[in-house]
Specification:
By secondary structure, the protein is an alpha/beta fold. The protein has a single domain, classed as TIM Barrel (Alpha-Beta Barrel), CATH 3.20.20.70. Helix content is about 35%, strand content about 20%. The chain has an eight-stranded parallel β-sheet. Helix 3 packs parallel to helix 4. The chain starts with 7 loop residues before the first strand and ends with a helix.
């Protein structure tokens, strides 16, 4: 696993032009991105609908970067195999979804993918604590999931990021701490100071005049 203290920039294709997604993924790759983040929404667990496994498999041939797939869906266990088959490298599921979290994380690991667990801004950190020794990545949502372009929820989420870092150090664990939502050249450093190392950014990267410059700014 890459070092949990190394900053990783993961552009979210949710903010890209889906009509030319291959070119958009290549653009992120050439601009210096580390991972490509894919937000899967089912219209049930979150209000919005985005895309499914077919979209992930359409992205896969265009990059060798890690495909970081975030399942904002009610039954991640039911669709897991399809997302593995589509070429996901890392799959993150929500602690709030309707599934056996331990079983789902085990299945992700057995499929050879990185095991991610996510929590929403309203969910207390204590909800994920029982699973922290079973994951490779903890995703702290820094906006209410479902829609792009929201502003960063510092007060509600940064204490969780700090708690995740403290817990990791106290227990000798090695999971990445990822943040997603409202991440830009300013908030990326707030998240970093609190302990996050994987920065998912959509609008602030895909909407930037020069994505390579924007990525460099986020690296600090």
């Amino acid at each position: 696993m890459s070092d949990c203290n190394t900053r990783i920039i993961a552009p979210s294709v949710l903010a890209s032009d889906w009509g030319q997604v291959g070119a958009e993924v290549k653009r992120a790759d050439e601009a210096g991105a580390d991972w490509i983040h894919l937000d899967v929404m089912d219209g049930h667990f979150v209000e919005n609908i985005s895309f499914g496994p077919q979209f992930v498999s359409a992205v896969r041939p265009h990059t060798k970067l890690t495909l970081d797939v975030h399942l904002m869906i009610t039954r991640p266990d039911k669709y897991l195999a399809e997302f593995v088959k589509a070429g996901s490298d890392r799959i993150t599921v929500h602690v709030e979804a309707e599934h056996d979290v331990v079983g789902t994380l085990a299945a992700i690991g057995e499929a050879g993918c990185g095991r991610g667990l996510a929590l929403n801004p309203a969910t207390p950190f204590e909800m994920v604590v029982p699973f922290l020794d079973q994951i490779d990545l903890l995703l702290v949502m820094t906006v209410v999931p479902g829609f792009g372009g929201q502003s960063f929820m510092k007060e509600e989420t940064m204490p969780k990021v700090a708690a995740a870092k403290a817990y990791r150090e106290e227990h000798g664990l090695e999971y990445h701490i990822e943040v997603d939502g409202g991440i830009d050249a300013e908030t990326v450093h707030i998240a970093g100071e609190n302990g996050a190392n994987v920065m998912v950014a959509g609008t602030s990267l895909y909407g930037a005049p020069d994505m390579a410059v924007a990525i460099q700014e986020m690296r600090g």
